[in-house]
Amino acid sequence: IECLQLSVCSGSTNSDAMDAFRHGYHRALCVTEQQTQGRGRRGRTWASPFAANLCFSLAWRFSVGVAALEGLSLVVGMAIRSALAELGLSNVTLKWPNDVLIELKKLAGVLIEVSGDTSIESQVVIGIGVNVAMPAKMASEIDQPWTDLRSQGLVCTRTDLLIMLLKHLLPALSEFEKRGFAHFKQQWNDADAFKGQVVCVKTLSQSWEGVCQGVNDSGALLLKGASGLQALHGGELSVRLA
Ligand code: BTN
């Protein structure tokens, strides 16, 4: 890490990490206590009240183009899962493409944004939000089932959590860059919250229903439906129990 930015309040650490690229850094870490414009996938907001979440983003240059990074959000999810396992939480599962769940409730999310891409390298922002101790009043503001570390009985400072996440995340990123997603496929399928279940996958324009068969070598979701086995690519999909 070439640059560390710690702030008390940020709009979004993903924007801070984009700025780090603009300032010429290739590997930067931006962490904050609170976000005023925390963003999630598909235009959602990410509730980030003071000290309740661990919110951080990595600005990361890869020596491959974005086309080779399809499984990145899955690799990040796995790193979060193994960090939490080392902290004592063994019941964490993953929802394709990027949610970290406990008992099907969302504990953490990953937002990946691309800042630059050529065929031989790319600049990517990896934003991670982990619910640590959310105030009870947030319950009505979050539109999906969620949980936090405190209600899972895990007492851990956000600093210790960040250190543990980086310990798992940084080696996973270089392994992924070198070896691609196929190397991680089995590990992801072992953590899949929905494997073998009938799910409905929606994009903005279409939806598919089928039995979830895990992911393939590039990280695409395999759905077995009426018309056979379908590999669903892209990061803008949501999975709901049918
Ligand atoms: C999602 O599940 O929709 C993704 C949530 C990602 C939230 C994190 S918090 C740190 C970083 N900054 C943001 O604005 N978003 C990500």
Précis, in short:
Helix content is 22%, strand content 33%.
How many structural domains in the coordinates?
2
What is the number of helical segments per DSSP (H or I, 4+ residues)? 4
The ordered H/E elements are: EHEEHEEEEHHEEEEE
In terms of per-residue confidence, which ranges show pLDDT below 50 for 5 or more consecutive residues? none
Calculate Rg over CA atoms.
Answer: 17 Å
CATH architecture of the largest domain: 2-Layer Sandwich
Give the averaged pLDDT, no decimals.
Answer: 93
Structural class: alpha+beta
Structure description:
Belongs to the biotin--protein ligase family. Keywords: ATP-binding, Biotin, DNA-binding, Ligase, Nucleotide-binding, Repressor, Transcription, Transcription regulation. The protein has 242 residues and is an alpha+beta fold. It has 2 domains: 188 residues, BirA Bifunctional Protein, domain 2; 48 residues, Roll (SH3 type barrels), CATH 2.30.30. It is 22% helix and 33% strand. The strands form 2 sheets. A 7-stranded mixed sheet has the order 1-2-3-7-6-5-4. A 5-stranded antiparallel sheet has the order 11-10-9-8-12. Helix 2 crosses helix 3. It is globular, with a radius of gyration of 17 Å. Bound molecules: biotin. The site of biotin (BTN) has 20 residues, from helix 1, strand 3, strand 6 and strand 7.
